[in-house]
Each structure stands twice: as C-alpha cells, then as structure tokens.
Description:
The chain has three domains: 21-153 and 166-202, MFS general substrate transporter like domains (Growth Hormone, Chain: A), CATH 1.20.1250.20; 213-269, no CATH class; 273-508, Up-down Bundle (Growth Hormone, Chain: A), CATH 1.20.1250.20. It has helices at residues 9-54, 58-86, 88-107, 112-140, 144-175, 180-183, 185-199, 213-236, 240-262, 276-306, 311-317, 319-335, 341-362, 368-395, 402-435, 444-452, 454-461, 466-506. Helix 3 runs antiparallel to helix 4. With 508 residues, the protein is an all-alpha fold.
Amino acid sequence: MEVSVTPTTDTTASLSARSVSKWWALVVLMLPVLLVAIDNTVLSFALPAISEALAPSGQQLLWIVDIYPLILAGLLVPMGSLGDRLGRRRLLLIGGTGFTLFSALAAFSPSAQTLIAARALMGFFGAMLMPATLSLIRNIFTDPTERRTAIAIWAAGFSGGAALGPIVGGALLEHFAWGSVFLLAVPVMLPLLLLGPVLIPESKDPAPGPVDPLSVLLALATMTPLVYAIKSFATGGIGVVALVCAAIALLSGVTFVRRQLARPEPMLDVTLFTRPVFTGAVAANLLSVFSLVGFLYFISQHLQLVSGRSPLDAGLVLLPGLLVTIMAGLLVVRLVRHVTPATVVTGGLLLNATGFTLVMVTGSWGSDLALLIAFSILGAGVGAAETISNDLILSAVPAEKAGAASAISETAYETGAVLGTAVLGSLLNASYRSQVQVPTALTAQQQTAASETLGGATAVAADLPTGAAETLLSSARHAFDSGVVLTSGIGAGLMIIAALIAHRTLRH
C-alpha cells in the first residue's frame, strides 16, 4: 500500500524561502564580479589625471597599470584551490575586506610607489574574489536550469562590467578626482561584507588535501611571467625581457603539471584537460573574452580620438552592446534546452567573427552607428559563448572541486583579456606606425610621440598651427582606421578557427 505525503504549508514556505534566498545570494555575489570587471577597463580613463597628480615616470605608469593583472592572474588557481580547502565564503569575505581597504589606500595614494603597492595588494585580494563567486554559484544552484541562469547573470556581469567601465570612468572623472575610480569599491563591497555571512552558505571540499606551497609558487611563476611576456611583446616586440619571461613561464608550467600528475592529492587536477569538453569550453571562454577586450581596445579610441566624443559619450555608445550581451546570456539558457551546447557556443563565436567582419567591410568610412551595430553583434556572441562555456566548465567537475574549476575559468578570462589587448593592440599599433605620415617640421620628441599612437598624434596636434595639426590628424586617423581594418580581419579569422575548435570538441 502506497502512502502519499502532501507537503505541509510550513514545508512549502520553507522551500520557497530557500529558493528566494538563492537569488538574493546571487545578487550579493554579483557585486565583486561587477567591481573587478569594471576595474579592468576603468583605470585607462584615469591615467592622464594620475600622471598630472603623481608625476610618475614612464616605467612607474606602466607598473600602475600592469601590477594588478600580473598578481591577479598568477594567484587565481592557488586561491581557487585554497577556497576549496578553507571555505569559499570565508575566502570571499577575506578577499572583499582586503580589496576594499586597499582600494581606499589607492584612492588617496600620495605617490606613484604607494599606488603601485596598493594595486599589487588589490590584485592579491582580488584573486580571492572571482573563483569564490563562480564556485559558490555551482554549489548554491544544484538544478541545471537554475545554474545556467545564474551563470548567465554572472557572465553578463563580467562581460557587461568590462563595457560598463568606460561609462563609469567617464562619469566619475567628469565630476570627481582620479581617486574616485578606486573609491568606487567601498560602496559596492560593503553590502557583500554585511549581507554575505547571512545570505551565502559556506561550502568547501569535504576531504581536502594538504596545502602545497611549492605548487602555489609554480602557478605564480607560470602565469605572472607569461602575462608580463605578452605585455612586453605588445609594447616592445620580441626582446630579451619577453623571451626570458616566456621561458620562465614555460619551464614553471611544465614543472607545475608534472608535480600535479605525481601527487596523490594535487592542487589542480590537470587531467581535466584530457576531457575534450572541458578543454574546448576553456578555449571558448578565453577566446570570447579575447574578442571582447580586443574590440573594446580600438572602438574606445576611435570614438574619442577619431569621432571626437568625450569619454562619457563614448561609453554611452557602447551601452546598446552591453544590453545585448546581458540579454543574449539570459536567452541562451532557454535556447540550450532545444539546441546542443556545442551549437550555441559555436554560433556565439561565429557572431564574434561577424562583428569583426562588419568593421572590416565598412572600413575607414564606417560610421559610429556601424561600430555600434558591430559591437552589439559581438556582444550577443560573447554573452552566448561565455554563459554556456562557463556552465560546461563547472559541470565537468564534482561540486567539491568547483573552486579549482572556477579558477581555471577565471584564468582563461584574465589571459584572454591580456591577449586581446596585446595581440590585437600590438598589431593595430604596428600597422599605425607603418602608415602614419609625420610632418618633418616637428621636433624629434614630437615625431616619436605622433608616430607611436593615435593618442600621441592627437596630443602633438594640439600644440601645432591649424594647418599642420589638420594634416597630422588626417594622416593619423587614416592610419589608425586602416589598422583597425587589418586587426578586425585577423580577429574574424581567429574567431572562425575558434568556432571550428568548439564545434569539434563540444559536440559530444
């Protein structure tokens, strides 16, 4: 005889409350995601004001920009593994506290050296934030459909935050001092620190292995020199520094993998990369971010230096693409019920290629409207590919190992962001230098500045007579837009190759 049990009103209410609590926890988890994503792009708008206020040397200015992603990229995997052992919520709150404090220090830095140190510590605590957010989502949302929706919102916050950075930066710098771009962390992170202990459940690996300090050092010695080598190559070409850093990264990476394979309880299960779906999803994640950041690199310059828009106006032109990115990420959650993940990710990467192709076809006569449409198409592709690839990465591992898998996803994101600027940016700069025609009447210093970047040419033109300024700007803008056409063609080709890889690796 079967006995049916009817849920009581109290049981139903309890289930409903837990369901609502999940989504409030997600709201709180989105705060550090948005903040770190915005922080990746907002600083570039503050550099002129920082240069004026702190008078850093050229090398110091470079370190102000670079030290944060260098530390962040090197520590993502160790921090993800540490969260599995110590507790993801605990690590998230520690990271949130440190990130807030040192963001405030950065805002009031009296010297370039202090700002560099503060940015380094922001990278250290920022590395605790991102793997923890994604791994907590994996453990809070156990239903596959709910998890995909949550990851769609998370991915939209990441990619949307990168596009939102110029808008936020433009608005802050039009009304406040440069430190405001760092003080933004205080009101954003306070709700996390106050509500996180209440809304976010703790989770960790129930049977964690011992902490392996040597593996932590090897991970840091792999990613930090790799990112620095990429940046050195982008700014100075193939040189001794870039080659030495690449060699250190390669040697450390090989040693790290061998150590993980030899240990009974590795810090990172590198055998995950033998699974085609996991590897294909990580590659799709990296290349989606590559396309987004590479596109933002040249569209932000075109809107300000060619179209003559203010930073805020330029950021607002990007707003439709931001909204499309968010909507696409949410819509694919429903789409993937009827279409295979491989088709969705492949289609997203092909949309990225279409966005680049539109820029390539319109060329130097393309209007801001054409760029807006192209960015919206690319945003749709990024939203779709990012959401499903992150879901595939997390689904490929047990829930107790979510921190390590999240760290791999975050490392792919950071590497893609660095590569997007370094590869497409360096190609664009090289094309610009080969085509710009600089007047011979300029001083040697002016010729160097004008021949390096469009921003340098614009600054030099401001001090020239009207006729000479117009001649220089016309040549510089034409050279820049020609470089955009070249890099867009390369970007489109890379996205098509990525789509083929995704189709082959994810179809099973």
